[in-house]
Amino acid sequence: RSKMDGRGTWRFFEPAMDASLQSRRALELDLREAMDKDEFDLFYQPIYDLQMDRISGFEALLRWPHPKRGLVPPDQFIPIAEDIGLITLLGEWVLNRACEQAASWPSELKIAVNVSATQIRDPRFAEVIANALDASKLDPQRLELEITESVLLGNSAETIATLHKLKAHGLRIALDDFGTGYSSLSYLRSFPFDKLKIDQSFVRDAIATKGSKLIVRAITGLGKSLGITTTAEGVETIEQLNQIQAEGCNEAQGFLFSRPVPATEIAPTILSLRNGLSRCRLSSAMSD
Ligand code: C2E
Ligand code: MG
Ligand code: MG
Ligand code: MG
């Protein structure tokens, strides 16, 4: 295949480039179709309160069960949804579904929803949130929005104002993947976060690598000084759990507690995590 370039000469695509462009176009078309056909799904992963020794809530994680490609991971399609302008619609679907789901849970459980930068910059964002809360009758205090540092990159006055407005309505705001973005600590000054989620890369290495251990310690200390919750992401082993608990992290999330589960497995997951810490330690002691 070939294409005229700006100067009226023919330019030939590399076959490899052509193929990846085609598969990208195909994925875009599939995404739009999936949106029309309501083919997305939400999974839920428990967030464990280490002090209370119980689940404090669940994080909603988007899944795309593709008829031919299988389960497409969000890291592969969310950036595309952003590019083709589908993220606001998709994000609205996620918020509605997550709030509706959480409204049926015991009232002490929160729901955390990931929101992208584009979504927050949409002028309708506050209205979308209000609608999701209205329709589900979910207490706003039970809804937590997870944003990444990229949301704050522009540090635009509007974004900060939107977040303040949502907070004033009782929502909580968590800073996700903390430590991996263009971390400028001034973000922490320009916005009153409720929670820092320590990126799983630091948690994973916190046993073997001194640097990562010190970063976990520093972030936890920062959270303490600021009076906000710290959550360790990606806790997979009992050693990591012991480590982050020793550092004073308030919450943990990861495969050690549970993988993300479909809505139908939420109740059994809550049951199986009763006294989760002692259970985790017991099962690890038995496998030693
Ligand atoms: P995230 O918000 O940081 O979510 C945590 C990711 O880590 C999830 O991947 C989760 O399945 C995975 N995870 C949890 N525990 C462990 C563990 O112990 N070990 C390992 N290796 N991984 C663990 P997932 O579901 O593939 O999501 C990836 C990212 O996609 C999310 O990262 C989030 O940034 C984004 N995402 C997911 N759902 C949504 C959504 O509804 N909207 C938006 N805008 N982004 C979303
Ligand atoms: Mg998240
Ligand atoms: Mg994260
Ligand atoms: Mg992430």
UniProtKB/TrEMBL annotation:
The EAL domain covers: 24-274
Q: What is this protein called?
A: Diguanylate cyclase (GGDEF)-like protein
Q: Which organism is it from?
A: Bradyrhizobium sacchari
Q: Which residues of the full protein are shown?
A: 379 to 666 of 666
